[in-house]
Write a structure and sequence with these properties.
alpha+beta; 401 residues
Length: 401
């Protein structure tokens, strides 16, 4: 029997709907409403780069423009309905999902000492018990509170002193938790004083939860994409789960048309065509997305679905960058139409736009530029930089390639 096939446009719209980008970015964005949005996404990546605004705030603002950074803190630090830990990277995660992180904690506890041996050395292991005793007696500590009299291995950014490495090890293994932040500085306390108590499910339950919840948020995906969503199960575990769920009739194989590539076999829950048909048509307004937006986290998937090839160039030497240090994707409707290089000049309360590159096939004429300016004005108000300043030559190649 022929596999059900989803054309590329329907696939894009369904995927954007699952990522809360197919509706107007309006509505409340604090308390229970903000928590519900984060649960819908699954997690929100945390990142320190602040050229315009930090990634987690940009991700939430792109979906609810009433959101303000102060809205997140109570959920993390007062209500404890969110916690900070690792998915594919450091993220804010609903505390309802915490129990499924216990296997990661156990795995990290057992494997990090060996995995970090060449990177951080072995001295940090001798600091673990001392650090735990200090926190138990004196309370939470920040990264700047510990080991200042110890030398780093080589002085590099990621070469921590032994006590700092011990602190990170204890967080990765679940014995410490981030209890609050001061600015962007993390403070850690004993996990039992931060996290609610919860039982650890079996590995089988964890794999089943991770695969189901990933596929729900992806809409459709290969076993590799399912495994990568939370980065909690191995590709082999996801492949085995897909085979078992397929045999039980809980999922089905489908074909998903790519933007510029052949259809790809994927898995989906039954009723994919109906879900795609009822997904809303994304509004044609322009939105600025974070480079770490969950809809773009899987760069290969972004290429297949949208024909959008994105690379972070922070660590690329300036002379070798194709675009810029930290360039923001632009979403219009269900297409990614360009990327923009900009930053906040906070002293003068200006949002400085240095360059915009249209994607292949998209022109920035008067109408699209007007929509862009409207979105940048909203972004400027959000960041406290309401004045727009376009540098000379900011609009780059407008040719339809």
């Amino acid at each position: 029997m022929a596999l059900q096939r989803l054309d590329n446009r329907a696939a894009r719209r369904l995927f954007l709907d699952r990522h809360a980008l197919a509706e107007q970015p309006t509505g409340p964005a604090k308390g229970e409403d903000l928590l519900a949005l984060i649960k819908r996404l699954g997690f929100v990546q945390v990142d320190s780069v602040n050229t315009v605004e930090r990634a987690h705030h940009m991700i939430l603002w792109a979906r609810r423009q009433s959101y303000r950074p102060k809205n997140l803190k109570p959920l993390l630090e007062r209500d404890r309905v969110l916690f900070e830990h690792w998915t594919h990277d450091a993220s804010v995660i609903p505390t309802d999902f915490l129990r499924y992180w216990h296997h990661r904690f156990s795995h990290n506890h057992a494997t990090i000492p060996e995995r970090w041996k060449d990177w951080q050395g072995t001295a940090f292991r001798e600091k673990v018990d001392v650090l735990l005793a200090q926190i138990r007696e004196r309370g939470a500590v920040s990264t700047s509170d510990v080991g200042e009299d110890e030398a780093r291995a080589s002085g590099g950014w990621w070469d921590w002193n032994p006590t700092k490495a011990a602190l990170e090890y204890l967080w990765h293994s679940g014995r410490l938790a981030v209890c609050h932040r001061d600015g962007f500085t993390k403070h850690y306390d004993l996990a039992e004083r931060v996290y609610p108590a919860c039982d650890a499910p079996s590995r089988e339950e964890t794999v089943d939860w991770a695969c189901r919840e990933a596929l729900l948020r992806l809409g459709f995906g290969t076993s590799g994409e399912i495994a990568a969503f939370w980065a909690k199960v191995t590709p082999e575990e996801a492949k085995a789960w897909c085979a078992s769920a397929l045999k039980r009739g809980e999922i089905e194989e489908v074909l998903i048309d790519g933007a510029d590539s052949a259809a790809r076999r994927s898995f989906a829950f039954p009723g994919l065509a109906e879900s795609a048909a009822t997904a809303p048509v994304p509004p044609d307004r322009l939105r600025v997305l974070s480079p770490f937006d969950p809809a773009l986290r899987d760069r290969k998937r972004a290429v297949r679905l949208f024909g959008f090839d994105y690379r972070i160039e922070i660590f690329v030497p300036a002379a070798k960058r194709r675009y810029g240090y930290y360039v923001f994707p632009l979403l219009e409707g269900d297409r990614l139409v360009g990327r923009i290089d900009m930053k906040c000049a906070r002293a003068e309360e200006s949002l400085v736009i240095s360059a915009l590159w249209p994607e292949k096939g998209f022109r920035f004429g008067k109408g699209r530029i007007a929509r862009l300016e409207a979105e940048l004005e909203r972004l400027g108000r959000f960041t406290g930089c309401p004045t727009l300043r376009f540098q000379e030559g900011w609009l780059r190649d407008e040719k339809v390639l």
